[in-house]
């Protein structure tokens, strides 16, 4: 506990900055571009995310079929004990892919922006009637919410309820309720629309834009201070997590082939596929770009969360790698929520792995189902640790694989989650670089438009006088002109 405590504080500080950083970056970034350019950038970003997620799902499925990590004879006594304790999982009603997609829509369009900062909507299935329980549907849903078995904790806490429901002929009903956690998708959508429309009202919205730009600059200064704590925080988080595992060697040995398959997929994607994508589009040395992201990669590995590493990712992308801030403020917050390349890879490998352990022979249709389900589920994943385990149940249900075998992966998810998070983080960064390159002409036109706006050139609130007596005209996200003047600065 004491060893992990500095890392806990480190993660709390990082998470503290996520919400103001996302809000400020999206509003200031989208307001600096016109609505047409925002639409083009959003389309390019979404197409890139969809393509790379599909590519990861195909890669994971291919590796799992070639390496064949799931050996049905390798089930250990510990696995058997674990399955006996969580056997009712297979009899519980789990959410489907359609439920996950519908929840995605509910979170993108929240009905309360303040609630979105604290809670997110999700679907659960509960028995229609439980003996001895009275009350309305809301009370029932809160009482029996763990039936969904979305995590190992909820599974173990609801064994008796599931055993009862398995013995009875129970009709399951779908209930939408709220769970703790920031609804980042809803906040991202609101800020994008707000910022885009803010940029269309001209000078009236200038003060608001400057306000959010100032917030973004202050958060970046806070990130600079946090960076000094990175070595201590990362070491503390990793050491504390390793110490919390009862027998690391035993767990790694039992699931060595599964871990090897995930690690190989991550290695191939990061060192070959991503570098090839970067070189094809930008014609630059991709490994120099990769090395510039070492600190965010280590932070993402330690925290197992792309969102927690977002403040450091912003700093490296803007200051070290010189990616246009208008693009990073737009792409990175969106990528944290919908671009889960590592998650798509994990779900694909895990689905094939569990099917192989269960002696299932998958036909071509089921393999294609795994690929498509992994892609769709990954884009609806939350940017939180171990979120992929919930989505794995959806993929297993799609191919009718035994859900209770997924409990074996709980033991190693703390480690595999860190590996795949680096894929998610790098996918966002490379997406920003590619989108910036594809949007370079539109960005130049935007700079020229800002330069020739008379209101921007002549307004006093954008004119300053430096110590050398030069008049400095500043344009947000464009250029800075120094003009020699021999008379005091005036409105003309």
TrEMBL record:
PROSITE patterns the record matches: NA_DICARBOXYL_SYMP_1 (PS00713)
Coiled-coil regions listed in the entry: none
Gene3D superfamilies: Sodium:dicarboxylate symporter
A Pfam family this chain is assigned to: SDF
Membrane topology term: Multi-pass membrane protein
Keywords on record: Glycoprotein, Membrane, Symport, Transmembrane, Transmembrane helix, Transport
Keyword hit for Chaperone: no
CC per GO annotation: plasma membrane
Localization terms from the record: Membrane
Residue ranges of the TM segments: 45-67, 184-202, 222-243, 255-281, 287-310, 330-355, 375-399
Xref: InterPro entries: DAACS (IPR050746), Na-dicarboxylate_symporter (IPR001991), Na-dicarboxylate_symporter_CS (IPR018107), Na:dicarbo_symporter_sf (IPR036458)
Keyword Transmembrane: yes
Molecular function as annotated in GO: glutamate:sodium symporter activity; L-glutamate transmembrane transporter activity; neutral L-amino acid transmembrane transporter activity
Stated family: Belongs to the dicarboxylate/amino acid:cation symporter (DAACS) (TC 2.A.23) family.
Protein name: Amino acid transporter
Organism: Anopheles coluzzii (African malaria mosquito)
Organism taxonomic ancestry: Eukaryota, Metazoa, Ecdysozoa, Arthropoda, Hexapoda
